[in-house]
Specification:
Layout lengths: L1 E3 L28 E4 L4 E2 L2 E4 L10 E3 L29 E8 L2 E2 L12 E3 L6 E10 L2 E4 L14 E7 L1 E2 L1 E4 L4 E3 L11 E6 L3 E3 L2 E3 L92 H8 L83 E6 L2 E3 L3 E3 L11 E2 L5 E2 L12 E6 L2 E2 L3 E3 L28 E5 L5 E3 L28 E6 L12 E10 L3 E9 L4 E9 L5 E8 L7 E9 L5 E9 L4 E3 L3 E3 L8 E4 L3 E5 L6 E6 L4 E2 L3 E5 L2 E5 L7 E8 L2 E8 L1
Parallel strand pairs: 2-13, 3-14, 12-15, 13-16, 14-17, 15-18, 16-19, 17-20, 18-23, 19-24, 20-25, 23-26, 25-27, 26-28
Antiparallel strand pairs: 1-44, 4-11, 5-10, 6-9, 6-11, 7-8, 9-10, 21-22, 29-30, 30-33, 31-32, 31-34, 34-35, 34-36, 37-38, 38-42, 39-40, 39-43, 41-42, 43-44
Length: 708
């Protein structure tokens, strides 16, 4: 008879076993490593809450769960997820984007747009998915905050990839979907359980709150309103945490700044105010005068005594209204120095207000206000910067950059005046406010640069020979940067520059009333906070691949703390990258906290990869680590024995055969290789007893028991 055994004295380790792979089912890093090699990659998925969720709730409901699937954004470069559908262990950011209450009654003063209540706007938290049923998402932990929704209160749910490492190559970039009418997007958020190396860019430039649109209007000299429902009184305000257009009621035209959105330029043809985000100090909405030119301070002080040395937090103010004649900006506009047109009045859109930050708030940059127009030459306000949130358990390094700046407003364009002649005779929009960057990094931050600056106000362009001039746009206010520790890296939250006019009538003073945005806020010394994580109901201590007897593959593992697990499935990766279930193993009965499993099957003929999948009673599943397999060189050997011969059938390879006694002595001159695939061993003359046949090739050996 013939049996198989492992004889310690003679049999060295021949198993095709690999290093044990701990698979404790921690959810951080579940989506594996990612290297970004292309520009414009988007990892996040976005949806909005369909119903309010209170502190203590463990279930939230979104409008359409498929918006959070990997397939919601096409392209393999945009898919870092191991599962298409949102599933157990996935990470979400829940954040209230809009819903602040502002003063809308003071339509004739700068008090319009004051924030009277934040209503939790800007508050965010991270949560981990336990299960999904339709549009309902059950979380592992209860919410810590109230997330109220209404027609103007908007809460976004963002799916965050859980990477084990992240590399962004030079020239490549990671970004996000732009905020818009769907009230989603504007956020780039990634969790990395290992290290992140940024040699390219992570960018949220210009994907924040929208700049005010330009709209058609007719000439209306002398308007002064801060908020009006009459489209001929001024341009549209930039978007902010209080909303956009009809969110503000019907009075969304005019120079008043609604929260952190810039005010629209007032008729006739004054510039839009810059959007805002963070900052400190007193806000007036008048921005920060640029005194870099010769005698520019004199021109500023014509507006009001000492104005050239004043400062304001937030966004910059839009430039003066329409002037017809070439006069002297260093002198009062009275008597023979009258500008005519709309008298070059100080009625540009006010700069957006700075917002108050706390440890659990993040805000999009406010949009700039539009420039007032009536000749189709004016421009919209610049979009604000978005939000970037990185959670890195290792180090963050590289030679690249992380940017969340506001967009510059466009310069005035060639339009048509009322007589049909081509002109640039309208005002420009304000720059977008800087966005927000928060780096929650455990080990270190080095090498990279950070920027969340305000966007430049648009220029009022046109022939330098022209006398008439119109308002440039105000600069956007700077954004917010927050980091753990005090890394020695470049961080920039500067305010955006004001636009200028190229009119020959104001060559001595190109700012023409438009001012710069103020700097934002840099917060260092934050403490690292861990990401939501739990161990799933089962943990695998080990998962081994062993080739046994040449042609058999044994898979064994130890599981502990099984709760509701119904079975395990062994999967093999196919040539097309898909995974095929080879065998299912039911979970073992009993209350033991540690259970051992073993599966044996015919070994594949080709190298490949295997993984284990555990499934629980709710339908949730989790995968172990992936392990490689290399087939044994001894696969395919057949050994048959009778009383006189051992017959060995094998492949055409240079096998070595040896026969040993039970005490380990080799028996010589009994092996005859009949052909390239056929070998016999003469045992008829040997004493009765137990013998051992050794088959070896290229350092791999197997032993067979032979009983005569």
């Amino acid at each position: 008879m013939l049996t198989k055994s492992a004889i310690p004295k003679l049999l060295p380790l021949f198993l095709s076993a690999f290093a044990l792979c701990p698979a404790t089912f921690s959810q951080t890093g579940k989506d594996g490593p990612e290297t970004i090699t292309a520009a414009g990659v988007i990892f996040n998925r976005y949806d909005v809450l369909a119903a309010s969720a209170s502190s203590g709730a463990t279930t939230i409901t979104v409008t359409n769960i498929t918006n959070l699937s990997a397939a919601a954004i096409s392209g393999s470069a945009n898919n870092p997820y191991t599962t298409n559908a949102l599933s157990v262990g996935d990470l979400l950011m829940i954040i209230k984007m809009q819903g602040a209450t502002i003063n809308t009654s003071s339509t004739t003063s700068s008090a319009y747009g004051n924030i009277t209540a934040y209503n939790n706007t800007g508050v965010y938290e991270l949560a981990m998915v336990q299960s999904v049923a339709g549009n309902a998402i059950t979380l592992f932990s209860a919410l810590s905050n109230n997330f109220t929704i209404s027609s103007t209160q908007r809460v976004q749910v963002v799916r965050i990839p859980r990477l084990s490492s992240l590399t962004i190559n030079s020239g490549a970039s990671l970004t996000g979907q732009a905020w818009g009418s769907s009230f989603t997007g504007g956020i780039v958020a990634v969790e990395v359980s290992g290290n992140a190396v940024i040699n390219g860019t992570i960018t949220a430039n210009g994907i924040g709150f929208r700049g005010g649109d330009v709209h058609a209007s007719t000439q209306n000299l002398g308007a002064t309103t801060y908020a009006s429902s009459n489209a001929n009184d001024g341009a549209i305000k930039g978007e902010g945490i209080a909303g956009y257009k009809n969110d503000l009621g019907t009075a969304y035209y005019g120079r008043g700044a609604a929260a952190n959105g810039g005010g629209g330029g007032t008729q006739h043809n004054s510039g839009g105010g810059g959007g805002s985000n963070a900052g400190s100090g007193t806000w007036t909405g008048q921005g920060n005068p640029d005194n870099s030119g010769t005698n520019w301070s004199v021109a500023w002080n014509v507006e009001s005594a000492g104005f050239s040395s004043t400062t304001s937090s937030g966004g910059g103010r839009g430039g003066y209204s329409y002037s017809l004649r070439n006069k002297d900006a260093m002198l009062p506009g009275t008597g023979p120095n009258q500008w005519q047109g709309d008298d070059r009045r100080n009625v540009g859109g006010l700069g957006g207000r700075p917002l108050t930050y706390s440890s659990n708030t993040l805000f999009l940059g406010g949009g700039g206000g539009a420039g007032d127009q009536n000749n189709n030459s004016g421009t919209a306000g610049g979009n604000g910067g978005g939000i970037i949130y990185l959670h890195v358990s290792g180090s963050l390094s590289g030679t690249g950059s992380i940017t969340a700046s506001g967009n510059a407003a466009s310069n005035t364009v060639l339009g048509d005046n009322l007589t049909g002649n081509s002109t640039y005779n309208d005002a420009a929009g304000g720059g977008g406010g800087g966005g927000a960057i928060k780096l929650n990094v455990q080990v270190s931050i080095s090498g990279i640069s950070l920027q969340a600056s305000g966007g430049k106000g648009g220029d009022q362009t046109g022939p330098t020979t022209a006398d008439e001039a119109y308002g440039p746009g105000g600069g956007g206010g700077g954004g917010y940067i927050a980091v753990v520790g005090s890394p020695v890296i470049t961080m920039n939250v500067g305010g955006g520059a004001n636009g200028i006019t190229t009119s020959g009538g104001l060559s001595e003073f190109p700012p023409n009333g438009a001012t710069r945005g103020a700097a934002g806020t840099i917060a260092t010394g934050l403490s690292y906070t861990s990401s939501p994580d739990v161990v799933l109901p089962v943990s695998l201590k080990c998962f081994n691949l062993n080739v046994v007897a040449g042609d058999r593959l044994n898979i064994n593992w130890i599981a502990y703390d099984e709760a509701n697990i119904i079975r395990y499935e062994l999967e093999q990766q196919m040539n097309d990258g898909s995974w095929k279930t080879l065998v299912a193993e039911p979970s073992k009965a009993g209350n033991s906290s540690i259970k051992e499993y073993s599966i044996t099957l015919v070994a594949p003929a080709q190298p490949g990869y295997f993984r284990l999948k555990s499934l629980d009673a709710s339908g949730a599943s989790k995968y172990s680590c992936i392990k490689p397999f290399k087939p044994s060189l001894l696969a395919g050997i057949s050994v048959v024995q009778n009383d006189q011969l051992i017959t060995i059938t094998h492949l055409n390879r240079d096998y070595k055969f040896k026969l040993y006694t039970s005490s380990g002595h080799e028996i010589k001159n009994v092996i005859n290789k009949i052909s390239s695939v056929y070998t016999i061993i003469n045992t008829g003359s040997l004493p009765k007893g137990v013998y051992y046949l050794e088959v070896s090739l290229a350092g791999e050996r197997n032993m067979f028991d032979v009983i005569r």
